[in-house]
Design a protein that fits this description.
This protein is an alpha/beta fold and 316 residues long. 48% of the residues lie in helices and 14% in strands. The longest helix is centred in the N-terminal third of the chain and has 32 residues. The model has no long low-confidence stretch (mean pLDDT 95).
Length: 316
């Protein structure tokens, strides 16, 4: 019996060791295939990856969960760059921006580091636009750094405290044991077909458009450190949104909200239709039949919302 137990432990150790090797090799190939798109800023010792394009009033774009700059540079940023200076950031721990809080950077901490990075690029008072989790960060920016924002655009934002529990993947991935044991297996062995199906679930009822995966690089999100950072953010988000919500009434800048009626990830009726009642003067545009990724599948409509926010802020 003891010998059998030892054999099992040895086999498990071999499987885990191979997983570490495969994960490390996969991550090296991924970073070679999808290098940073922009520049790495040093913000008081913290690395922040920023992509800058275009000229005009400053617009900061903040991606959602499991994202990176490439989510915004696929469709939305190039449209905006005709009329704005667009700054796209990787959030801490994702893409090529550095983590700085082992417990998971809060939305307030993320807003602070990205605002300081924007200021370093000369954008003292940009329009701030964020999608999904990035919408939560954008709300935190507007509430806690009101002198450093001209207008707010929220794209399918996670804004109102919810009642559904955290999913199993992020529950496990946010723990130290999950980080050490489960995430290497995922990074090493998850097949491409599963990643493609996962992308389509995020886009539902639409599908990820042709060329999106090749541009976005979902493998960047499958790196162990990125999955752990993202899981930490997700695990902490409900408490952070609950704490922030009572201050939404303090937001005084022009605010545009854009949300798809078919979004089942962050539901329109629970979030944006309730949020609009809490921000003075906020305007909501509902996109009929659109799911959770308007910045990709309805990029012109999102750009139009940013145009409206700029006009209301006196920037156009």
């Amino acid at each position: 019996m003891l010998r059998a137990g030892i054999v099992v432990l040895v086999l498990l150790a071999i499987v885990w060791g191979v997983a570490i090797w495969r994960a490390t090799a996969n991550e090296s190939r991924t970073e070679a295939a999808f290098p940073p798109e922009g520049q790495i800023l040093d913000v008081d010792g913290i690395a922040v990856h920023a992509v800058v394009m275009g000229a005009g009033p400053d617009v900061v774009l903040i991606h959602g969960s499991s994202g990176n700059t490439r989510d915004m540079t696929f469709a939305l940023a190039p449209i905006l760059a005709d009329n704005y200076r667009v700054i796209v950031f990787d959030r801490p721990g994702l893409g090529y921006s550095e983590r700085f809080n082992s417990d998971g950077e809060t939305i307030v901490e993320q807003a602070e580091i990205l605002q300081r990075a924007a200021a370093q690029l000369g954008a003292e008072k940009p329009i701030v636009a964020g999608q999904s989790y990035g919408g939560s960060v954008s709300l935190a920016w507007a509430v806690t750094r009101p002198e450093n924002i001209s207008a707010l655009v929220l794209i399918a934002p996670a804004a109102i405290p919810w009642e559904t529990p955290l999913d199993t993947f992020n529950t496990i991935g946010s723990t130290s044991a999950g980080n050490a044991l489960a995430l290497p297996l995922i990074s090493a062995y998850v097949p491409d077909w599963y990643v493609s199906k996962a992308l389509d679930r995020v886009f539902a009822p639409q599908k990820a458009p042709e060329g999106y995966a090749e541009h976005f690089g979902p493998e960047l999100s499958m790196r162990r450190a990125s999955m752990h950072a993202n899981a930490k953010h997700r695990a902490n988000l409900l408490a952070e949104v609950t704490a922030l919500e009572p201050r939404y009434g303090e937001i005084a800048v022009p605010t545009e909200i854009i949300h798809g009626t078919a979004d089942t990830t962050v539901k329109l009726e629970w979030h944006s239709r309730r949020l609009i009642e809490q921000i003075p003067g906020a305007e909501l545009v509902e996109l009929e039949g659109i799911g959770h990724m308007p910045q990709i599948v309805a990029a012109p409509e999102v750009a139009a919302a940013i145009d409206r926010a700029a006009e209301r802020a006196g920037l156009r």
